[in-house]
Design a protein that fits this description.
Residues 4-51 form the F-box domain. The protein has 138 residues and is α/β, with parallel strands linked by helices. Helices cover 36% and strands 17% of the residues.
Amino acid sequence: MALITQFGDLPDLFFIGLFNYLSSIDILWAFTNLNNRIQTLINERGFFRHINLSSARLSKFDTLLTILPLNQIETLIIDIEASPLQLSHWPYLPHLTTLRLYGLRDFIDATNFILRHSTSLIHLTLETNNLFMSVCIT
């Protein structure tokens, strides 16, 4: 007789190991609000504190934005070429300390976002196709 393992029977270490192979956007997209146990693991492992939405298209981004606890986000990484409208859609993130923007083309949205978060930002990285600039704000 074969034993059947259900999703809920898998140990926490299985999910922790699985999360090491996935991007933060994939973890948030697939596992957020799945069940209380998985949600607790996501919170404990800091997937809401360090968000990399570089590969998120606008439709997926808009959905994720409604489920993210904005007051927990400390690090935000966005590839503007993949998601050019993301910066204009983000509300204020009170604990944002690290911002990395790649593929930057329009400095107006970036400047507005940076200024809005200037009191909390410590690390700022801006990258365009031919320009790499890393700035540390103290």
